[in-house]
Specification:
Shape: elongated
Oligomer: single chain
Number of domains: 1
Strand content: 5-15%
Largest sheet: 2 strands, antiparallel
Mean pLDDT: 80
Distance between the termini: 22 Å
Strand order of the largest sheet: 1-2
Low-confidence stretches: none
Structural class: mainly alpha
Number of helices: 4
Order of helices and strands: EEHHHH
């Protein structure tokens, strides 16, 4: 986002629309590919990955920073999500082998919370990496 001041002296942020358009195309492509490839995961996994992609698109791509870094962070976040769900599938199969109702209920209740944890963790790491880029750029400007 470019920073400018309006008449009252307030800072005004301008989103980077070109990155937003490129990011939209990339996110749509990733979602379509994941819908085709992720047949072994349940619908909640697919919804969580779609939610992560949309969150990333709307909150990271408009920020200042190189497009390459944003794309790499998005792809890395999707890979973390897929690995996360692969681990959950293994745990779910293990829990169903034990075949106890209390473990099944606990897994069903905890799954959305656990999904939220990986989404927030990956998104916050990405946001801090974009902020570190801005700090480095400001330091280079001053020197």
């Amino acid at each position: 986002m470019a920073i400018s001041k309006n008449r009252q002296g307030y800072l005004k942020l301008k989103p980077n629309f070109s990155h937003l358009i490129i990011g939209s195309a990339l996110v749509i492509t990733i979602i379509v590919v994941q819908i085709q490839l992720i047949r072994s995961f349940d619908l909640s996994a697919l919804f969580s990955i779609i939610f992560f992609n949309l969150l990333f698109l709307l909150l990271i791509f408009p920020l200042q920073g190189p497009l390459r870094r944003k794309v790499i962070l998005l792809i890395t976040g999707n890979q973390v999500g897929i690995v996360w769900y692969a681990i959950q599938v293994v745990l779910k199969d293990t829990v169903f082998v034990l075949n106890t109702n209390s473990l099944n209920v606990m897994f069903l209740v905890a799954k959305p919370l656990v999904d939220f944890v990986w989404i927030v963790a990956v998104w916050s790491i990405s946001l801090s990496m974009m902020a570190s880029y801005k700090i480095k750029a400001e330091r280079l400007e001053k020197s």
